[in-house]
Write a structure and sequence with these properties.
Elements: E1 12-16, H1 22-34, E2 37-40, H2 51-63, E3 82-90, E4 93-94, H3 96-104, E5 111-118, H4 125-132, E6 137-138, E7 142-147, E8 150-151, H5 155-163
Parallel strand pairs: 1-2, 1-3, 3-5, 5-6, 5-7
Antiparallel strand pairs: 3-4, 7-8
Bound molecules: flavin mononucleotide.
Residues 18-24, 54-55, 58, 88-92, 117-121, 123, 146 line the site of flavin mononucleotide.
Length: 165
């Protein structure tokens, strides 16, 4: 992406978590259009495959900011200036695996461009990302609404955002 100082090319990486595939689909779309490296965050203990159970169980856990361990990632983040960070929204905020990623890594001085897939209830997701990455520069966050597994914002709007990355 182009740096905020103008003209400087920042080295960028796409990092995302996806439970049901929506966020993965967007991450892959960004990867296809930009060629940036891409890394999927995976919890050490996978979530239940029962969607309704997950929704019910997570409500309480999310309020307690439950800590979920994630698998180590295979890249050295020191080599990147910008992180395109993808998460589904769970109970009005980012998912626990992405919260763990932000807690475990010092992203001071880096640019973070968050994208959050959701069903229409954004909550405090982007403010919370800022809270967990207080010394990063959060730029151009985008909320990407889905109806189930159907993209509910226009592909044009998405492409316009991707062009800025
Ligand atoms: C546990 C859970 C909680 C959710 N909470 C919200 C929410 O607060 N707001 C919202 O708009 N969508 C919510 N959703 C819907 C997801 O954010 C949406 O379907 C998202 O695109 C899923 O991404 P994924 O397929 O990459 O996992 C929730 C889904 C789950 C499973």
């Amino acid at each position: 992406m182009i740096g905020i100082k103008g003209g400087t090319h920042l080295k960028s990486i796409i990092i995302y978590y996806s439970y049901g595939g929506n966020t993965k689909r967007i991450a892959n779309m960004i990867h296809d259009k930009t060629g940036y490296d891409i890394v999927e965050i995976k919890p050490v203990v996978p979530y239940t495959s029962d969607y309704q159970k997950l929704v019910d169980e997570e409500e309480n856990k999310m309020h307690q900011e439950e800590v979920v361990e994630i698998e180590p990632i295979s890249v050295d983040l020191n080599n990147y200036d910008a992180i395109i960070l993808g998460t589904p929204i769970w109970w009005y905020t980012m998912t626990p695996p992405i919260r763990t990623f932000l807690k475990n890594n010092d992203l001071s001085g880096k640019v973070i461009v968050p994208f959050a897939t959701n069903g229409g209830w954004l909550g405090s997701t982007f403010d919370d990302i800022k809270k967990y990455a207080p010394n990063s520069n959060i730029l151009n966050p985008i909320s990407i609404k889905f109806n189930g597994s159907d993209l509910a914002i226009s592909q044009d709007e998405l492409n316009e955002w991707i062009l800025k990355l």
